[in-house]
Amino acid sequence: MRGSVRAFFAVLLLALFPFFVLALGVGGVVAGLTIGHRAGMYVAILAAGMMLALGLALAQALRTRLEPPSGPVLTRQEQPGLWRLVDELAAQAQTRSPDEIVLVGEINAAVREDARALGLKEGKRYMMIGLPLLAGLNVTELRSVLAHELGHYGGGHTRLLAVSYRGAETLGLTVSRLDSGPARWILGAYAWLYAVVSRSANRAQELQADAYSVAAAGSEAAASALRKIATMDLLWEAYGERFLGLPSLAGRTPDILLGFRNFLDHPQQRRIVAEIEPKVLDNQPSSLFDSHPTIRRRIEKIGAMPAPPARPDQRPAWTVLADPARVVPAAEARLYIKGELGPRASWSEIVRIAGAASAARGAELLAGAGRESRAAPGGTLGELLAAIQHGRIDQLMSPLLEDGGNPEQAREGLVELLGDVIVCALIAQRRAHHELSWGGGRLITGPQGELKVTELVAPAVRNPALVPQFAQRLTALGVRMDFVRRPTAAPPRPAHPAGGAEPQLVGVAPEVMAFKKNWDVLVFDAGLLLVPLKAGKLAGQSLAGAVGQGGHAQRKRVTGLLELGQAELFGQPGVRWLPTGTVLGGDRKKFLTGGGKIALRFAGGETATLRTQHDGGYESLTRFLDTVPRGQPVGSR
């Protein structure tokens, strides 16, 4: 009841908003006429203009429609078992089932309804199920989660959420179009009041929906699902950091959900969850603007609800799907990979291949640094150890550290890279390999069992007097002192097409869609360089993005481009150079959801539209427009 009253006030506030706008404008006009003279005329004109601008913003916002969720749609024909479950839970909630069930990549489940007439008229219903939940929850817990979401339908919450959405959109657009001043302050206060009232209603609705969850699956399953979801984000992130960068390195396609399930079931993760779960629940922030009560409060309320007897089903939640061995990989490919990584392989094979590739990369780096610094002219292991023994670590590592780094950074980097050299040498002789460990990532098995490389290498790096004994130990393991990993020779690159003096880099716009392809765009003072974004790299970023590491993967990729010389950079296969001198003008448009696009017009009538979802990338592209010489028309809309 309390939630319904709060929702009523939220709807009332939104319904009164047009009258508030009208009163603000009319009041200003009346005040101006009352004042009279020139000052009053200015006030009246200003108020009328403000009322017109606010009215246009209001009309545009009220026409805003909910975007359908993006992801694989699970139809009734393909997934009859899942739909039977949803229909059963909908009947218990005394509501109609959703029109579509969509898999999404986030750790979440939600419902949406594209309601009309301020939420009073029903619209198309969507249910979204986060793919990781199918691995992290059991069948009973999934039943609890779905019942909770359908409880929102049963309580009419989704129509009210549509009102909240439109209200927030209306007020946000209107306030954003005003400059600083009394009108913005007043409307900002109105928007603040609306947010407080509407979010309070949302929190009450969540507790009401939990009652449906308990009725469908029991209080134990309902509380267990909430606790798991509270910590699953952290575990998904840890899983991504340890494992989801390996498929791109190995050139193999993994079973992402199966790996996540194995990761969660490992005793190490179970111990971690037992330690962090109380801290996560106790430290959840609580604010007037939160749409959900804290999980701790929800669990307490669930424990006090009457619960029917329930028989738990401990099978993984993906067993509710028909043919999960086909459906789940297809969903992974669409939500996370979005390209071709290579043939499908087991995680054990992926770890073995990626581990060897990573060791080879590190060994190549250290050999190259030895040659460049002249501390180890041939790059062999024996020369590297001699450089360490004679105190030339800083010289050896100088090509790999920015501004030479510091001694501690040099030693830490050398421990890692020298370990790569040793592992690479043993792999080359088939005396070592990487093994999968869901508890720690990967293990290295050598001639005498598990090889703890850091413990083997670090003492000699930190105390050069131990290098002779270290060399003897390596020889006993079968490592040759003349081993060197030589990089594959890179083909010569042509000079960049800008000609003359090298252009200066002024910005970067990663992951831009243009000419029906994905690019990383480097913004120079003389033009734009479009570097093709290969499917494998985009897939790696998508995998990392699923666990919150997309930004790190993107920065690592862009940093690799920036480390190239300009001749090599401009000479990469498939790059496109768009010089500033050929641009006649362009338009720019910022997206409300983030990022934006620029539409360029070139001499000869050609056009090109560059789109990005990243605010920083959009700003870099707009700076390019600002470099167009004066006299060339640059539009803005």
UniProtKB/TrEMBL annotation:
Membrane topology reported for the UniProt record: Multi-pass membrane protein
Family matches, as Pfam families: Peptidase_M48
Peptidase M48 domain: residues covered: 77-302
Compartment(s): Cell membrane
Transmembrane domains' residue ranges: 41-59
UniProt entry keywords in alphabetical sequence: Cell membrane, Hydrolase, Membrane, Metal-binding, Metalloprotease, Protease, Transmembrane, Transmembrane helix, Zinc
Domain of life: Bacteria
UniProt xrefs under InterPro entries: HtpX_protease, Peptidase_M48
Keyword rRNA-binding in record: no
Cofactors demanded by this protein: Zn(2+)
Entry annotated with the keyword Transport: no
Protein name: Peptidase M48 Ste24p
Organism: Prauserella endophytica
